[in-house]
Amino acid sequence: MKHLIDTFNQCSMHDASEYILKLYDDVLESKERDNRGRWINRPLFSHSSLPDTLGTDAVHVKEFDFKEPFLYCVCVHHNTNLWAKHINKIPEIILDNVRNGNGKLVFDDTMEGAPYTKFLNIIYKSIDDLNLPADKLYFVTNNLLAESTHEKWKSSNNIRKYINLFSFMYNVHDIQRLKKIPCLPDSIIMEDELKYKKDNLHNIKHFLKINRTDRWERNLFMLHMNKNNILENSLVSFPQFQDKIIDAGAIGIFDNLTTTDNINSLRSKIPFYIDHTDITNVGEPGHEVGTFNADLPFEPIHYKNSLISLVMCAFPFQENACHLHSSTYNPMFCGHPVIQFGPYQHLKQMKKNGFKTFSKWWDESYDDEIDGYKRLKMVMDISTKISKMPIVNVFNMIVDMKNVLQHNSDLINNYNVENSLIKKIFNEY
């Protein structure tokens, strides 16, 4: 099966042409401020990398015989409710041939993972209004709760004809690309990792803490590390400290961290550069020199020179969603355990996908705490407790979890794209 390309679905998400952006002039919500306050204007549909993963050959729409079956893939805007309202923006020749049953329309949301309760109402209304066959539409997302959410919604709404909706751990799959660059090691053998750490224990840090994109809970966690003297035994990346320090709902819970003295103390130490990737990774969002790439990995040596990754997931307060990305999977591939502030029961979802977690060595009951602020406080408390342990004791703990760490690294390295994506797109399961 061929995948079709044209000007519409080959446009850049970050740098779309005037022609493409003009198509969305009537969609005012497509213009918005990012989390750093900068105005951005992204197309609702853009270039998707899924065809590369699927291994399909590209054919331009103008050269294609629509008597043949095809795929038409688009990467979708992070505002799922918004793009779902505007599926009509997709070229009519594509929609018409999907209606005729010749094509499959694939919506690629593998970089995001928003809650989908409202979205499902919207997309099903859109496909009904456009008279599109639901079974020819595919929605691929990074939200690990997507399937269960969809099943409940279908049942409660008595849906008989439904879209193909499933999760795909893109950032696990993306490890293979990062290995080739190379930004990550080719493979991990825990025996070798432990030998290196043992031989260099006097230079090994308790924690690796990476901060790229600025969010208030990450600022707060840094204040926690500063207040409790955790920075001294950590490798830290923290290039900037934005104005928002705490969410209004968290005031009172973390008052001991947000004192003027602690804030000024942390500000006086910024920026924290971990290596040259920090120093040169500045500017407007993008992937070129002089731009800021929030997903740029660090040099793998930092995983060797530390024992545990402290991870702040992208949207830890989201309900009915579990969106985990490279901040979780890169450390685990490199042989690190993770203590991470993520959405409610994200560890449970990881275990459903074959990962092993670390409840034998520290209290993971935070995963079952519904209140996000309390969950954050519990993660902070774990990091404080471990930071006070002698480095040799933490190292011995890592030695004890060797088999778990190897299992997780191997699981990521051997992620089955055939079963998790390809067979589902081509209905071979």
Overview of this protein structure:
It is a single chain. The chain is of the alpha/beta class and 429 residues long. It has 2 domains: 2-168, no CATH class; 175-413, Rossmann fold (3-Layer(aba) Sandwich), CATH 3.40.50. 38% of the residues lie in helices and 15% in strands. It has 19 helices and 15 strands. It has helices spanning 18-22, 50-54, 80-85, 92-99, 117-129, 146-157, 170-173, 175-180, 190-199, 216-227, 260-269, 276-280, 301-304, 326-333, 346-352, 372-387, 391-400, 402-413, 417-425; strands at 2-5, 31-33, 39-41, 45-46, 58-60, 70-76, 103-109, 137-141, 164-167, 205-210, 234-237, 284-285, 291-292, 306-312, 338-341. The strands form 4 sheets. Strands 1, 4, 5, 6, 7, 8 and 9 form a 7-stranded mixed β-sheet that branches. It has a 4-stranded parallel β-sheet with strand order 11-10-14-15, sandwiched between helices. Strand 2 (31-33) and strand 3 (39-41) form a beta hairpin. Helix 10 (216-227) crosses helix 11.
